[in-house]
Specification:
about 140 residues; alpha+beta; five-stranded antiparallel beta sheet; two-stranded antiparallel ribbon; 5 helices; 7 strands; about 30% helix; about 25% strand; globular
Length: about 140
Amino acid sequence: MKKENVCKNLSDYVSADFFMCACQKPIVKNAWQEYEPIVRELNDALRNMPPLYAQENEGYKAKVYAHYFGGATDVFVTECSGGDAFGYVILNGDYDNSELGYVSIEEITSIEALNLDFYWEVCPLSEALMQVDAEYFSNM
């Protein structure tokens, strides 16, 4: 009989635990049985995120591996090494000043108003931006 590797808590899923916002962790832990399958899939996707500079020549074709959202703010993470990440940030719906740049995962995960999108599917940045506002980002 094959013994399954059973993860009993969030910390067993290192990538999901690292990228998950602090405000989400208590909710997940309190309803672990319901969240475990979601966290498992999330962990698998995040574990495959490329390191910094791996997609630097891809521009808006770079794949987004993590999405944080809250109010009119969106953060799309394309690469990460340690706590340093690269991606696209839209603050408070200000598309004109949104930009590609470096972000700190520790800073993002500590912001009470942001949540990690548990159902994010890896896609090119251009496609992710079209999900936010197809009309505005149609020329990307």
